[in-house]
Amino acid sequence: MSAPTRRRRWFTICAITTSAALVAIPAGAASGPDRSPFGARTLAQLADQRAQSVGGVTAKATTQDSGGDDGNEADEIAEGADQYAEARTSPGIVAPGAYGAAWSSLGSLPSTGGSWRNVTDLPYNSDDSRYRDYDSNSSAGMGNVTGRLAAIAADDDGYVYAGSAGGGVWRSRTGGGHWKPISDGLPSQSTGALALDGGGRLWLGTGEATTNADAYLGSGVYILTDPHHGTFSSRSRVGGDELESTTIHELRFGGGKVWAATSRGVWSHSSKKLSGAWKLEFAPNPDYLPGGSLASDASAAYKNIANDIAIDPKDPSKVVLAVGWRSGDDYNGFYTKVNGTWTRITSGLGDLPADADNVGNVTFARSADGSRYYAIDQSPAQMAANPDSGLEGIYVSKSGSPTGPWTQIADYQGLAADGSALTSSGYMPGVQAWYNQFLTVDPADAEHVYAGLEEVYETKDGGSTWSAVGPYWNFGFSCWSIDPTKQTGDCNQTSHPDQHGVAIGSYHGKAYVYVGNDGGAYKRPVNGSQDSEGHATDWTSLNDGTIDTLQYYSVGVGKDLDYGGVSITGGLQDNGQSELRSNDKIMGSNFGGDGGDTLTDPANGCNIAEEYVYLAVQVTQNCAVNDGSWIDGTGPITSYSVAPADNATGEARFIAPLAADMKSSSTWIAGGRHVWVQTHGYAIRSGDEWTSAYDLGEGHTATAVASSGGKVYAAWCGPCNNQGFTRGISVGNTDGTGWHDITLPTTGAAGTVPNRYLSGFAIDPHNADHVYLTVNGFSRHWTEGPGAGVGHVFESTDGGTTWTDISANLPDVPTNSAVVTANGGLAVATDLGVVYRAPGRTKWQRVGSLPAVAVLQLKLSPNGKTLYAATHGRGIYTIRVSRLK
């Protein structure tokens, strides 16, 4: 049986962090998003699509085409990607040190009572056979997953180190699994690079450098001299604050130095003497660095991006730098020292491009014996003009020198024909090569190489032939079946899509390759087995539930009528929606792709609405339980696409606001250009059931909505980036009456709502005219931009007409959402944890002791006694409201 058409819903959010927070990127390759919600997944449609596919590739190993796809996600990526960053930067550029100062201020706050409890620290099975419904990706073959891993390292004693995008670094002593966090004491939980040096020390470069929107900056480089037993501390930082508020793409060693490829150029430091400042080796445009004459320019964040360093093993004084912004710039290229000066290499590289248009994100790897150097090159020109792929190629230098000459050994068309699942036009290997890259060489064999793009590829003959040992998914392969008695039919497990980190190490004397991707950590024997199509038969997921780096955007809580207790759901970056029933030992995934906002009926936790992206909403009334019987027709489906019209027109944000009225769970409000209302609750079956209560205006799009007793608050922005940023608040009723815009001056007296991104409302359950507003971004002290203003939490007692700044002693940190507790307290989610203001008080306290992780949403349990926090990197946590004193 062929696979049904499954919309490629493992998306990637992509923008780049700037020199202190996050900044939106140019659209780059985006040529126009396809926002059709989910797509029908029938066999007939798949067959029709395959027949009409133009430019598709026929696999070499089989006549069975590899997968289908009814949407071009590569076109969506860049447009939706920058929005997470916009919320934290617009309308200006954030100065270095903002997050570090906020973390220090947060630590000085008094603490409430109580402690957080992680409720998602158990396995999360993306292939859970209970949830094989129409909008699920169950049976794709990923197995247990967790949040995005940006880097990975391993030794020959069975120790594995996993660096997550937003949840810190984790250690396994058992060759993967049984993980423990080892960086919770650091002010940044964002990983850019992990590397073991020749002496067995573990180096950590903080600040994720995958140029994606939900990546956070780091606080520098740290070293762990005894990684088998120790933990990172702020005292273990190497050098001074030179690399604070940067991202670090790679750490390389040679000539007694450690080299760092960062978002502010290439730096070096002695690897022996750890004190003293880092040395700036090369920045192509130093005027754009902090303190430079152009540091406040809107393009400053893109002017000094370094991707990797290649050091000649025979002569460590010969170094090649790969420098350049993945969307292209004049400075992009390879550099080496000539007569003591860093000079662009313009010729002599062989097949490896030297021109700026074709040098983008680059990754190097060299063989242990020094005989080979390998490289992956992403092309800005390809990304801009070729909808199929941005990959220029994979290359080898058989001289072992990074200066070449280089020979191309792979391109995207060849990889597509080598067992890839990505054979359809518009989404082929390397389509996200600016985001997905890793490369490593088997220490025992210079011609045995693993390369990571969206998929994992292996060559055992130096690149003459390749195999997609870790295909994107198993849909479309002849071995696939939706049979609930099997994980993925007769296919073997694959690794999750979107590869970022790789390492080779040993456990009990056997060598393994470890990969880190958007679904966590996986391993297989270095010399593992393959089936007839070249797919590995021996991947093992290492996401056993002891590592929780899940990146939640939202959380929903409702009574579990079947098993007692509560059912907990949440929308995740690239891992769909998780479903945790009260009797579960393993979480399941009932919706696939990027999970945005979540609604769960407090009275019935199996009544669920999940937003995908751009207000593409689906609803279920049975937790989306389905054994896959819909494969033979849409009648047995248990989830329904109910997107408001702004989804089809593109007038909604990537993660758009969705809320239920506090007094009526059957009344929903959704925000795009319009404020949409529907009153059928979870019984809604069509997007036509939404009505427009108010038009926010052309170019405006909702950033937050809330409603109580029919009174609605809607915040909006437009433009939402640095170019003419504006924001506003509109207030009205769900029946369409009484709508009006609140006057919010751009500048004004103290207490004026700042001209920054308005992120959330919290309505007093006893009085709909009493409402709180959270404001994202940093205040004027850190933000250069017109009307940036001060303050993060505001209060109105007259239905939003006037506002008072109640930030008081709250640290200057982006705030994301808030909730009013039953006793009148106010809990606020920030980019660095949760704060609380007790009833009758004016000062804020820190809630518990979460690591430096972003909390994006807070919800109360149905009885109001438990507070739930959706973190973007460490799962979902709870705390008893009664302990917040």
Explain the overall architecture.
6% of the residues lie in helices and 32% in strands. The longest helix has 10 residues, at 43-52. It is globular.
Please tag this protein with its features.
single chain; 885 residues; mainly beta; 5-stranded mixed sheet; 4-stranded antiparallel sheet; 7 helices; 58 strands; 32% strand; disordered N terminus
Task: Supply Rg.
Answer: 26 Å
How far the N terminus sits from the C terminus, by CA atoms, comes to 59 Å
User: How large is the count of helical segments?
Assistant: 7
Class from helix and strand fractions: mainly beta
User: Uncertain segments of ≥5 residues (pLDDT<50)?
Assistant: 1-78
Helicity level: under 10%
What's the count of strands? Answer: 58
Shape: globular
Q: Determine the mean pLDDT.
A: 89
> For the report, how would you describe the main beta sheet?
5 strands, mixed
Order of strands, widest sheet: 3-34-33-32-31
Strand content: 25-35%
Topology of this protein?
Blueprint (H helix, E strand, L loop, with lengths): L42 H10 L20 H9 L1 H7 L3 E2 L3 H10 L9 E2 L5 E2 L23 E6 L5 E5 L4 E4 L7 E2 L9 E6 L5 E5 L14 E4 L23 E7 L2 E6 L2 E6 L8 E4 L23 E6 L7 E5 L9 E6 L2 E4 L17 E5 L6 E6 L1 H6 L5 E7 L8 E5 L1 H5 L21 E4 L7 E4 L3 E4 L7 E4 L28 E9 L2 E8 L2 E6 L14 E2 L14 E4 L6 E6 L5 E4 L6 E5 L6 E4 L2 E8 L5 E4 L18 E3 L3 H5 L8 E4 L2 E8 L2 E5 L12 E5 L5 E8 L2 E7 L9 E7 L6 E3 L15 E6 L7 E5 L7 E2 L8 E4 L7 E2 L9 E6 L5 E5 L2 E5 L7 E2 L8 E6 L5 E6 L4 E5 L5
Parallel strand pairs: 3-34
Antiparallel strand pairs: 1-49, 2-58, 4-5, 5-6, 6-7, 8-9, 9-10, 11-12, 12-13, 13-14, 15-16, 16-17, 17-18, 19-20, 20-21, 21-22, 23-24, 24-25, 25-26, 27-28, 28-29, 29-30, 31-32, 32-33, 33-34, 35-36, 36-37, 37-38, 39-40, 40-41, 41-42, 43-44, 44-45, 45-46, 47-48, 48-50, 50-51, 52-53, 53-54, 54-55, ...
